[in-house]
Amino acid sequence: MTVPSDIEIAQAAKMKPIADVAAKLGLNADELEFYGRYKAKVSPKVFKRLADKPDGKLVLVTAITPTPAGEGKTTTSVGLVQGLTHIGKRACVALREPSLGPSFGVKGGAAGGGYSQVVPMEDINLHFTGDLHAVTTAHNLCAAVIDNHIQQGSGLNIDPRRVVFRRVMDLNERALRKIVIGLGGRTEGVPRESGFDITVASEVMAILCLAVDLMDLKARLARIVVAYTCDGKPVTVADVGTAGAMTVLLKDAVNPNLVQTLEGVPAFIHGGPFANIAHGCNSLQATKLGLKLADYLVTEAGFGADLGAEKFLDIKCRTAGLKPNAAVIVATVRALKMHGGRKKTELTGEDLQALEAGIPNLEKHIENVKKFGLPAVVAINRFPLDTASELALVEKKCAELGASFALSEVWEKGGAGGAELAKKVVEACEKSSELKFIYEPEMSPKEKINAIAREIYGADGVHFTAQAEKDLELIHELGKDDLLICMAKTQYSLSDDAEKLGRPKNFRVTVREVRLSAGAGFLVAVTGAIMTMPGLPRKPAALSIDIDEEGKITGLF
């Protein structure tokens, strides 16, 4: 029997009108702004109506270190919320918006898979409600005005060599990483080196996801440091004068988007920072709204617990006063065998030796979750070739590490396949927990970075390059030492070396630069070969995407 693809499953779905989905959460039609029949934005006035309502349980979904074998974190998040609904719980999910960069590049879409997807899948993976385009335009408006200040000699005394606010676009385009702009003569601008980042790496995106409301968004935008003067003083968005205009461009984008899962469970999809170069969480507003409207809110943080989960807890939860009740760590037997030394082509047969060698990676992520004081549930995303002996070995190791264990079959069975996991999550949420942070804001930036590297990555310490030392000296002079830390690190290893799989030992992390994100409220510590503008692979996913005369899309997965 031919197994339908994700997009075929999504296209065959019978979606419910979004007003009916919203009604499950107690939302009224006049609290929605409709984008067709199946998408809507939620009005900010809902927060006032629900201000005194107690929050539901908050469940964070994270994962082991990603491998090419796949883990299925988003699929598990969607399957879990369907599983919670299946066992009679009032639940919803909050996810990030997919970026067009990976959708047309190497990764493909990010709407779940199989029978645990959010729909309308094509819309979500493409332009959706236009949020990412609004972020792109707001960011580039500021960039254009900065260059106009330099061109017109407006009195800000901006040093063209020290403009740190690059332009952005929501596509992978390596040719634009480093460019020269302003060529062509006096009327065409002032020549200077610049470049592009991907939209989801923009500080504007980070701010959109951390702002509590429109006015907080505006205030944060105003604090972005975009350049330095010829005598070394910072120039902010407030100085440039674009905070108001940028907020106008983002006035709709700041409101959470509501869609549904294949089983009609409400799903908020809002904001999309990457977790390897940004803080990797959906918007604070979507999370807080879901907590007010449901008894259980499932939310996801990007990549493994060393990246998205650490930032969710140390940055987002600290900023918003959130207190998760439990964390789910998604893993697969296949991925653990890769961490044990097997290649992707060597994963079909039973291999207990490779599995045992790879389990220390899972062990480290369980330890990380426990360091934050949260109960851990390991969800094994089951594949058909997983053997009973392999599954039993993982379950045994989880028991030894004090973590609950559940098999997840949500890709194949939807909510019914997530019922076991849902029950384990409900049990975990009833356990006592006390959120702990890895560092305190009062620590120096070096101390905070070292704490993350040692406690979360398992590093022996951190080496700061001469450029990083210079960056930290400037940050200190600007009085920004108390900002939180956002680590930019490869997702493929607990270390800063993508080739070191499993649980690396005896390594140091190298921080090569530290960027100031004053509006977002954190410092970005850049390690390894992290790029803020990804490139396309030899065969981009875009080459397989097409549409027919009936408007049916193919190749988007």
Number of helices: 20
Q: Report the sheet-strand fraction.
A: 15-25%
Helix content: 25-40%
Number of strands: 25
Oligomer: single chain
How widely separated are the two ends?
Answer: 20 Å
Instruction: Please state the average pLDDT score.
Output: 94
Q: Specify Rg, calculated over alpha carbons.
A: 23 Å
Structural class: alpha/beta
Shape: globular
Low-pLDDT residue spans: none
Structure overview:
The structure is a single chain. The chain has 557 residues and is of the alpha/beta class. Helix content is 35%, strand content 20%. β1 (32-34) and β2 form a beta hairpin. α4 (73-86) crosses α18. The radius of gyration is 23 Å and the shape is globular. It starts with 5 loop residues before the first helix and ends with a strand. The mean pLDDT is 94.
For this entry, give a set of tags:
557 residues, alpha/beta, 20 helices, 25 strands, 35% helix
What does the secondary structure layout of this molecule look like, with pairings?
Blueprint: H1 6-11, H2 18-24, E1 32-34, E2 40-42, H3 45-49, E3 57-63, H4 73-86, E4 91-95, H5 100-103, E5 112-113, E6 116-119, H6 121-125, H7 131-152, E7 158-163, E8 167-169, E9 179-181, E10 192-194, E11 196-198, H8 203-210, H9 214-222, E12 225-229, E13 234-236, H10 237-240, H11 243-249, E14 257-261, E15 266-269, H12 284-293, E16 296-300, H13 305-320, E17 326-331, H14 333-339, H15 352-371, E18 376-381, H16 388-400, E19 404-408, H17 410-413, H18 419-429, H19 445-457, E20 461-464, H20 466-477, E21 484-488, E22 508-517, E23 522-527, E24 546-547, E25 553-554
Parallel strand pairs: 3-16, 3-17, 4-15, 4-16, 8-11, 17-18, 18-19, 20-22, 21-23
Antiparallel strand pairs: 1-2, 2-14, 5-6, 6-14, 7-12, 9-10, 12-13, 14-15, 22-23, 24-25
